[in-house]
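Regression check, S-adenosylmethionine case 276:
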Amino acid sequence: MQDVRKREALELFAPLPRHYDRVAAVLSFGQDPRWRRAMVGAVKARGGERVLDVATGTGLVAKELVRRYGCDVVGVDQSQEMLARARARVERDPALEAHVSLTHGEAERLPFEDGEFDHLTFTYLLRYVEDPGATMKELARVVRPGGRVASLEFAVPASQPWQGLWRVYTRVGLPALGRVVSREWADTGRFLAKSIPEFYERCPMGRVVELWEEAGIGELHVRSMSLGGGVVMWGRKRAGGPRAATTGTAEEAGREPESEGAATGEASADGDAQPA
Ligand SMILES: C[S@@+](CC[C@H](N)C(=O)[O-])C[C@H]1O[C@@H](n2cnc3c(N)ncnc32)[C@H](O)[C@@H]1O
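Current build output:
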């Protein structure tokens, strides 16, 4: 039986593909393409390597990976409607067609062998799954030891006044902007205003960090972007695989996100990779 979060996600994304790219950028004040570039910058793939992009949606991350590295990308998504849009994008661009293949599948049960991919990316995914810890382990399973895992997610700014402004924007601004496009996008705006804070209530940032570590991903970086509205994370799959749940509190295990100003030397704000 399908769980509630999965059903919600499938219903949410079914009518969105047509306007997705432009509206997603507008709803994030133009920040979302920049966050995506920063995440791709952290992957540091090489030509010929295989990258799995989970929750590929309309294929924006897959496109950026190919543009940047000339690597091969497999995009997976559970929404046939989003995948259809990604397929249209790939089919009209020979450079993409040579490097991208798209598969219907679920992050919770990836249809791939252990260690099949050199690297893995996922975007805006964990909010939609019932068990983020089990999903993190499943994502890490298909990456070879030493491979990079990178993600992008919305976040709630940690400090005032940005947190207050963020709440007003997500509760009032997002649905209002969505209404300009369609009823479905207004619903999406309302959904995001609830879904983002709810996710961090059930899984605070410190716990997200623990889940990555328990899944066997080390050398973790957490990078807060755009005054805390977006968070890019990346790390490397350890050779030892998943480890037992951490016993300390989330606060003990969590680390302060690196702010944009305090660049890590791994991926700059505009996504340009820099020597570590
Ligand atoms: C906000 S979109 C992100 C799309 C794209 N990665 C981007 O950067 O714009 C989230 C995507 O996650 C997909 N998704 C949600 N839960 C999923 C799951 N459990 N398995 C696979 N895909 C999932 C949705 O179908 C949707 O296409």
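Comparison notes: Residues 9, 13, 24, 36, 55-57, 60-61, 77-79, 82, 106-108, 123-125, 128-129 surround S-adenosylmethionine (CB under 6 Å). Residues 246-256, 261-276 have pLDDT under 50 and may be disordered. No diff flagged against the previous build.
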